[in-house]
Each structure stands twice: as C-alpha cells, then as structure tokens.
Amino acid sequence: MIGWLLLTIESGCAGDRTTPAINVYDGFETPGLSGLWSGDRFEPGAVISETEIVRAGNRALMVTVHARDKFEAGINGNLDSERAELLEASRLVSKEGGNYEHAFSMYLPPDFPIVPTRLVIAQWKQSCPAGGNCADDSPVLAIRYSSGVLRITQTLNRRRTILFEEKAEFRGRWLDFRFQVRFSQHQDGRIKAWLGDRQLVDYAGITANAEDALTGYPDPSRFYFKMGLYRDVMAEPMTLYIDEYRKRELPDAAPGRAASAP
C-alpha cells in the first residue's frame, strides 16, 4: 500500500532477540515527510510534496536546490558545496558486513541543466566519528550526473573508481534504481546495481575505507544514505523528483556473493 512505513523485527527464541531487520517503504503519499527522513540537509521549502509528476500513487517529492542552499565550505582542498537532500533516519543506518537493498525512482525534468558542475543525486557515506579527519571525504558509493553523463562511482582511500558510466538522455523519464550492497573493509564486499531491468554494476571486493587512526574510520563502520541534489556551487537552480523508496535488509550470503534479487 502506497504511503505506509513498515519496520519488521525478527525475534529468535524467548530472551534471544536478534537485531531488528530493516524493511521500509515510502511512497511519499502524505503532505509531510515520514519518520524515515531527517530534514537537516535541505532548506525550508526545498522539498515539496506534489501531485503532477509521480511514479506511482498520487504524490511524489519535488526537490530543488538554489545557490548557497545548505552551503558548506570545502575542507582538505575540496570545493565548496550546496545541497537539498533527504537523509535517512539514524535507525536505518547500514552496518558493515550487512546485506542491504535500496530501491528508489528519480525523474530529471526535460529542461534539467546539462552542465559540467559536480552533481551527486544519491550517495552512501561511511560515518566519520567526531574529530576524525574524514568529514569531507567523498561518498564510498554514489550516483553522479554531470554533462549529460550518468556515473556510478566508488571512492576509497580518496581514490575514485568509475563502476558504470554512460552518456545518454536520462531526462524526461523515471529512472528506477536498485542497489544491493554489502559494505566491508575486506574482500567480501559487494555492489550490484540496476536501472530498471538492466544491470549496471556487479562488483566484488573491498567497499569501505579501512580503519585508520589518521582519518578516524572505525572497524566496523556504519554507512548512511542520502538522495537529492548535492553539487558544487553554481547560480542556476536544479529540480528533480523522487518517488517509491524502499530499503530492506537481505539474508546473509556467502562471502563474495550478494543475495539474489526478489
């Protein structure tokens, strides 16, 4: 049913409760945001429930970033940034070694700007502890759209790898993304990604920054998800639409293998 939020808790024997399993859905069918999301990554009015452009149901979210919205000065030589993003609630943060599936739909309007500006529309960040030298590190996994090119990138130890890249017309249609991920500082990590029925990525190996006293990353680490508009500073506004978000915890899989899609 569109618009509900489901959290399932699996229990073992009496007195032996397991860690709660994540299984959530948001069709953005209510005028306000559900408890799945934090509102501290966008300015008031930047995320609006609307009824004109929807993937399913009656409503979707329109996300708009303007110049200097949620401005952050770059550190460690990085460029300044601005954003309008949905940040998942802290209770939904992924644990290292766990298997998770994210699915969400995005719509770039036909007149969405084709510019070389750095733009991230979805990202998974490795949590940086207070005082760590990693607060401005790039996301370990990201969907980027720049100059009409869609990319899926991995950034580990401040080195970026392109897992998928394609220049095509991605505007004017709903883009249905699905990711299966296991974040790990070891070789049992996994990333699988689809756009609609087309598989874009099938990667096995290290998927998280290693524990490091200088950067501050712990072992094990935690990973949080954001989606929307995160970019270098520019004058022109950008708008995209988001609908049909799901996140679920997948059953354990053998090392180097992700759980199968449903």
Question: Would you mind describing this structure in some detail?
Answer:
By secondary structure, this protein is mainly beta. The chain has one domain: Jelly Rolls. It is 0% helix and 42% strand. The protein is built from no helices and 16 strands. Strands 1, 3, 4, 7, 12, 13, 14 and 16 form an 8-stranded antiparallel sheet that branches. Strands 2, 5, 6, 8, 9, 10, 11 and 15 form an 8-stranded antiparallel sheet that branches. The chain is globular.
Throw out a few tags for this protein.
262 residues, mainly beta, Jelly Rolls, eight-stranded antiparallel beta sheet, 16 strands, globular, disordered N terminus, disordered C terminus
Please give the structural blueprint:
Blueprint: E1 23-26, E2 37-38, E3 47-50, E4 60-65, E5 81-88, E6 94-95, E7 100-107, E8 119-126, E9 141-146, E10 149-156, E11 159-167, E12 174-182, E13 190-195, E14 198-204, E15 222-232, E16 238-249
Antiparallel strand pairs: 1-16, 2-5, 3-4, 4-16, 5-15, 6-15, 7-12, 7-16, 8-9, 8-15, 9-10, 10-11, 12-13, 13-14
Briefly summarize what is shown:
The protein is an all-beta fold. It contains no helices and 16 strands.
Number of strands: 16
- Inertia-based shape: globular
Let me know the average pLDDT.
Answer: 89
How much helix, percentage-wise, in residues?
Answer: under 10%
Poorly predicted runs are 1-17, 254-262
Assigned CATH architecture = Sandwich
Radius of gyration over C-alpha positions, nearest whole angstrom = 18 Å
- Helix/strand/pairing category: mainly beta
CATH domain topology: Jelly Rolls
